[in-house]
Write a structure and sequence with these properties.
coiled coil, 224 residues
Length: 224
Amino acid sequence: MVQASLKLNDDIKNTISRLETERENSKDVVDKALKDMMKAQQDAESERQHVTVLENELGKIRRKEKDLNSELQQVRHDWHTKEAVYVEVNQKLKTELQDLLARESVAQVLASERAADNQRLVEAQSKLKKSIEDLLSRELNAKDATIAEIQNSLNLAQERETSLQQQLDTMTDERNRLEPQSQQLQAAHAMVLDQLKARLQRVQEAHVAELIRLKAQFEKLRIK
């Protein structure tokens, strides 16, 4: 009996110890479950917030997509409008290009003809210049001969004037004796002298005018 009682008592103690151990284990399990549940709730709340953020971003993306679609439609409309304008402008440019090519062909022909005309004009100008230079050279030589002739006439006139002055001096010595003759000779001398001076003046004026004319012609040729 005593042994049975001791054994029963030991069984009760073991059972109580086991139950206390299981209780402690159950408490740990419950605590862990509570912690897991709280963490799951926190994760669910974070996930919900993340989903809310994603939904907001999705709304923004959809609005942006809508704006982009509207902009794309406007761009397509503008493109079609510009394409029609481009086709029209391109056609005009092609027409103008053909017109320019035709004009260029005509211009090339005209340029060729103008070059030939210019060449003929240059040759004609060269021949004219040579002819004028030859003419001026002959005229200048003739004028030089005329000037030499005039100069000889002037020298002769001066000599004649000197001779007449000598004669006048001789007549002056005889004036008291030949007063009437002296007066006549002085009048004749004066008349001859005036005639010579007038002729000399006309020759000098003609010579100066001719030199001026030749100089003007020479300047024109030099400018050309």
